[in-house]
Design a protein that fits this description.
Helix 5 crosses helix 10, helix 8 runs antiparallel to helix 10 and helix 9 crosses helix 10. The protein folds into 2 domains: 119 residues, no CATH class; 255 residues, 3-Layer(aba) Sandwich (Rossmann fold), CATH 3.40.50.10310. It is built from 10 helices and 12 strands.
Length: 392
């Protein structure tokens, strides 16, 4: 897109190597929300020839529909911006609406990279996320990421896939589930290996999402499903679920290892895959098939490089459903030259369609199980089962 003679490009539609080639004085802007004035933004940045727009951060500030305490919210944002600075970019900004408290310590200490614009129309945002009318449903919280996916896929892979799965689930079960807007930023502890990979930081991630659950529980919501499209989020989501269960004894908060990986998804993977184990770890057969189905315009199949030379031993190897009893986090540089783990050349749009159908079916099944778990447990509690009959 262009405004006057300025080119605005979507950062997350690039491949990581394209980001690596950007001049380091290219302005990169992380917007809070999706309603802002591009002409005003260009003026605020002194009208450079190109401006990169990162995926919009969906909520968290006052007026966004779900406000978090500013220290928790801004630590998440700060870590993301620091990811870009670590890559050498010198003009990194957060574009904020007027709902940000101008007297906050964050604004005072970070005014050099905080761009302000007037509030959008009140009609641009719902009053609450979720609306209070959605109580009693399973609240789906899809969390993707913005990170490298080899030479042939964009940075937005994880967010596009988990958003499609979440939207498909609510379409299938509209009276049983409600989905948040996808969060396009998660955790990458391998951030430094390949350019353009963001990192919210594990502790900030846990604080942010734990607080989201706290706020929603206080508003009367009691069933949650944290759905991840990115493997690096998974261990932190387990911690969040543990904290939530400890703090709020009468809710049911759950997560799962990625998508297309449970009972229904694993069966579909085996049925349609043409690679051996190691062919669909990251930017391989599975994720590339999803993107060919969802956004073929963002796929550069002429640039696919198959990489399956992961340093494997019987109890540590890489595939979509990881195997072995060892848990480790060695540098990605050891196992991939291009950022891919797997064989993207085996991908097809038809496989992506079939796997998406299976993933939605699997998540819908999980929604029903979350309802059943919560309802059966409440029956026991209300009947005075065990210690529930002695302590209220």
């Amino acid at each position: 897109m262009t405004t006057r003679s300025i080119e605005f490009f979507k950062f997350d539609e690039l491949t990581w190597d394209a980001v690596a080639e950007l001049p380091r004085d290219t302005p990169l802007v992380l917007p809070l929300g999706s309603v802002f004035n591009l002409e005003l933004l260009a003026d605020q940045l002194s009208n450079p020839p190109r401006i990169g727009l990162l995926p919009a951060f969906p909520f968290g500030w006052r007026g966004s529909g779900l406000a978090l305490p500013e220290p928790i919210f801004f630590q998440y944002i700060t870590n993301l911006l620091d990811s870009l600075r670590d890559d050498g970019f010198t003009r990194v900004y957060c574009l904020a609406p007027q709902g940000i408290d101008p007297q906050s310590s964050f604004v005072g200490g970070h005014s050099a990279f905080l761009l302000r614009q007037p509030n959008p129309s009140q009609n641009a945002q719902p009053l609450f996320l979720p609306p209070d009318s959605e109580r009693g449903k399973v609240i789906l919280i899809p969390i993707g990421h913005t990170e490298q996916h080899g030479y042939h896929l964009p940075l937005s892979v994880d967010s596009l896939i988990i958003d499609a799965i979440a939207q498909g689930t609510t379409s299938l079960l509209p009276t049983r589930s409600w989905a948040f807007p996808v969060m396009p930023y998660g955790v990458s502890t391998h951030r430094s290996s390949f350019a353009a990979t963001m990192n919210a930081g594990g502790r900030a991630f846990e604080d942010f999402w734990g607080t989201v659950i706290d706020i929603l529980v206080a508003r009367g919501f009691d069933r949650f499903y944290l759905m991840s499209g990115h493997g690096g989020n998974s261990s932190f989501l387990v911690n969040i679920v543990k904290y939530a269960g400890e703090r709020h004894r009468r809710i049911f908060c759950a997560t799962a290892w990625l998508h297309t990986s449970g009972r229904i998804g694993a069966e579909a993977l085996e049925k349609y895959r043409t690679t051996q184990i190691g062919g669909m770890g990251h930017a391989g057969e599975l994720e590339t098939s999803y993107l060919l189905n969802l956004r073929p315009d963002l796929c550069h199949m002429e640039r696919v490089v198959d990489e399956t030379d992961f340093v494997s031993t019987p109890d540590y190897y890489m595939d979509w459903i990881e195997g072995g009893s060892l848990i480790a986090n060695p540098p990605w540089d050891d196992d991939t030259k291009t950022g891919a783990y797997g064989a993207g050349s085996h991908a097809t749009a038809e496989k992506g369609r079939l796997w998406l159908e299976a993933a939605i079916k699997e998540k819908a099944d999980h929604v029903e199980q979350i309802h059943e778990q919560h309802e059966r447990r409440e029956q026991r509690r209300n009947s005075g089962y065990g210690l529930w009959g002695k302590f209220k």
